[in-house]
Amino acid sequence: MSVTTKKNVKRAPFKGDHVGSFLRPERLKAARTKRANGEITEQELRQIEDEEIVKLVEKQKEAGVKAVTDGDFRRSWWHFDFLEGLDGVEGYEADSGLKFDGVETKARGIKITGKVGFTDHVMIEHFRFLKGIAGDSVAKLTIPSPNMLFFRAKREEGIYESDEVLVDDLVTAYQGFIERIYEEGCRYLQLDDTSWATFFSEEGRASIEEKGHNPEKVAELCARAINESIANRPEDMLVTMHICRGNFRSTFMTSGSYEALSETIFGGLDVDGLFLEFDDDRSGGFEPLRHVNRTDLSIVLGLITSKFGELEDPEKVKARIQEAASYVSLDQLCLSPQCGFASTEEGNEITEEQQWAKVRHVVNIAEEVWQEG
User: Fold this and answer.
1) How many whole angstroms separate alpha carbon 248 and alpha carbon 19?
2) What does the pLDDT look like over 272-314, one tens digit per residue?
3) What is the CATH number of the domain that holds 245?
4) What is the C-alpha separation between 192 and 336, in angstroms, rounded?
5) For residues 16 and 362, is the Cβ–Cβ distance under 8 A?
6) Is 147:170 a contact under the CB 8 Å cutoff?
């Protein structure tokens, strides 16, 4: 698989960066509950969301990060909310939730009821608001990768005769969204993706085989979905991808090293940067980084956990960065939490104070390692 090397060096991802989602303030949680109960209007909820996002952006700036997000404050899920906004996709109340390590999410699912496409999307308006309040900071948008629809959605019969045809439509839909969001001023887009982790363990690969698919061919299809979706992005638009093993109430869904798919991930994806989990031994070591074959690919090391409040020993974090630098140039490396702080509106089991301490911890360590102000 060929990978296009970009000539222009991008500033983002930044040496001290973050994945994007933040704990929902109690005021916002209460407002969303009131809206669900019909106690306030949609406009009243939107006003509260706006006010809390303004506060969040200021807190991100105060913490020293250079790219700001809206924290997913308008979403319940990191993925379903976006995917339901595509043509031909609907949400529904599932029989059960997604299972994590000892816990289960609320019941929710998505299904493909027609041809997948892009006409318009509410998150374009969401980004417009963020861009308007970002000021000198970079406004970063995070959306699920196209692979999440492929992996998570049920399909009504008679709509798609093959996976390849579905991916063709998915690619066209994402290309349309990316074109529109670029017009709104988005220059930093992040694709969040838990599907790759399915390939990291024998259990995950077996689950693919149980559905009658060949894991190698599915991985090729997933890589094609990513590469073709972002192929037409303008030269000054940065696209990164966050690879996650699950993040719900400080638990996880899967484990396994990147090694099982390292050549595809590090040598076959045409993204500008990869946000990678390395906060515990579930992710394995840095050896798979030897497959990085581009000098313009940023590797964002998720060495700071968002799951627990205790701060990591900064010297140990610096030592791990140096260890990773034996496989990839230090100039290509960056630092971040391994995931967001609230992939769903429930959030991880940490306090807001601990959350901001983690963000500042990332920024401070990055400034020391790369001597960036």
Assistant:
1) 15
2) 999 999 976 666 789 999 999 999 999 999 999 998 889 999 9
3) 3.20.20.210
4) 14
5) yes
6) no
